Amino acid sequence: MARPTTRQGLVDYCLRALGAPVLEINIDDDQIEDRLDEAIQFYQEYHNDGVTRVFYKHVITTGDFTNGYFTLPDSLICVLRVMNINRGDAADMFSVKYQMYLNDLYGLRRPESIISYQMTKEYMGLLEMILTGASQQITFSRHMNRLIIDDDWKHTLKPGQYIVVEAYQTIDPEQYGDVYNDMVLKRYATALMKRQWGTNLLKFEGMQLPGGVTFNGRALFDDATAEIQKIEEDFESRFQFPPDFYVG
Fold first, then answer.
1. Separation of alpha carbons 234 and 185, rounded Å
2. pTM (2 decimals)?
């Protein structure tokens, strides 16, 4: 079908784009699966439609304390930050923050008081950023699926407490079948299979068949390589998230 919504549907689409069933596509089934996995992985890592931003919550266990790290799902490919962990100062009735929150209700009875309230909130936010940092310092290893919070856990964390992680998660095409119909993914998967077809035919280059026909796997391979290069350049220039810039 022209709008594949399953893995096999995408395979059939790619093979038809290469000429099947009119032509015999000389690719093994395992090679097809490998090239499709490669296309999906590349799509998820470099196309902005292959991932989504999520806020993942995790319940701290005693095992996390023993390990010194948190184990995250394999689908999380990038951790942006851990939401600020409450250090308890807002619960201290003698802290400035507690007293300010206590008086919020009474300090906003007049419309003009919102200006001073906003200025005070911005000032306290600046102090908190300078003294405690805007967010937790973390270390994340994607291939190990480990998140380490660089802090004194004894004073900031405890079993049963939640942490919230802002991250990018890959979109599972088996769950959201519309991914298989993405035009860029279809083009890229077809080009990878085409190059595999050319690679297979290179082994017989120059061999003459009955009737004077000769194999020309080199032309097929070079054509597919040029297509792949163009598609990957489009990924970088048109579909990839821009890199983060840090100032300071």
1. 12
2. 0.75
